[in-house]
Fold this sequence. Notes:
9-stranded antiparallel beta sheet, disordered N terminus, single chain, 14 helices, alpha+beta
Amino acid sequence: VKIVYILAFCFLSASLWAQELRPVNRTFALTGISIVKSPGQIIENGTLIIKDGLIVDAGVNIKIPAQAQIIKMDTLYAYPAFIDGYSSAGVKMPKEDDSKTQGKDPSNPNDDEAGIQPHRMVKDFLEPGQKSIDDLRRAGFGAAQVVPDGQMLPGYGAVILLAGDQPDAMILKSPSSLYAQLKGARRMYPATLIGVMAKFEDLYRQAALNKDYLAEYQKSPAGLDRPVSSRVHEAFFPVISREIPMLFNAPEVLDVQRIISMQKDYGFRLTLGGVKQAWDLMPLIKSHADFVWFSLDLPDDKDLEKESEAKEGSEKAVLEERKREFIKKHYQQTSIFAQNGIMFGFGSNGAKTGDILKNVRKLVANGLTRDQALAALTTHPARQFGLSDVIGTLEKGKVANVAIFDKDVFEEDAAVKFMFVDGRLYDYSAKPKGKKADADKLAVVTGTWDYTTDSPQGSSGGELILREEGGYLAGTISSSMSNQATSINDVVLEDKNLSFSFDFDAGGQKVTITVMVTLDGDTFEGTLTAGAFGSFPMKGTKQPE
């Protein structure tokens, strides 16, 4: 068997990032577990039955199906897997090519050049094997609304499940929103904020006119000019008819004010994403926005605990106090929004995945109740997307999206041990393997590496991604022939020598591949050994940060 084909088969059939357990029998009985069915509804020492990707039952004294795999979950906690309302997980957009716009009139670009691409569907840019998907799963998330990247009108968002081998299989709802930003085009109209707002209003007005004319033409076309199709204008049609909302990126106070001023003029359903500073705008938001997705990228709160060394009454002391008050507002605003009956959820865009749950706990420490926080992570997003019958709680008939923690999720250092996403079980309970390494050395080696291997049958390659986990190296390796990736094991970094291994099933035969390379700055060279199939040269180059 040719090694190139064996390696290709390896990557095409590998599990995604974490160790995904794929049993023949998809019936599970999780016993002895504390089941948080929904905010405020907890079953102690319960049993959760999952079959073929759905929740069959959750309670006590439940009859366990004969075919079920019984997994004892004593002392663990099961929650509805969280829902990220504003994310780019798994989305890989094509690189922008500035050479295509050189020499063109910057005052009259075409729509694509100007970042006006509302017709694009984010599902066309999904890559199931991306590390960002696994990172969200590790934080307890089972679904996310993902949006494309771009300028003022990047395209339609979609709600996806954070599992699956193919983009179409991940989709829960598409489209879920039309995504927009107050972000100008690069070196051409509309480049300024005023230009972006004027262009949006012009597009929306023209789209509304086109929609009305099309309806009139379809009703009675005699004597009317045939409508001219415009994919940009037609992308606004479901927004104009209020089938889906506009999702605007609105991190700052002025962003919120400007966006709401446009909403007042046109009356579209509005959701605000990535919101950071909105405490002074609650009445305005309550009147004009359907929903708020608060950013989990929060400012450092260390200064809240730190005692000032500045002299009382001094200019420095006054500035430090203002800074503390500003930071407090960030941490207290979700509690104030909840008290005022404004629906909201959370979004990970721009936040470090490892800080997400820490920051939610900080919000709870600053007035948000645990039930309010859990609702913002589960039931509120499900309701906003019209998916309450599908996800958001642990109830019979719903998709088996379950986050299993080692303790109450709002306790410090609570961590995910297992995840069910669409009934697929991911095991995060294993401790890191390999050998701890110095932090400075880890910083040099972590990142994405392009590699190639050579065999008598030809060359193959892909990406090696290395990341730090608690002082250890971990990561994944993938092939250019596939969007999927598999976890690497036993990662050891000693001086300039890096080694690791990974397994795959080659047609029923388990093969362990061992890699040993020597680092030289942003390159490495070494060998890849595929068991009895032999050893082959391997080279790699680190991608720029």
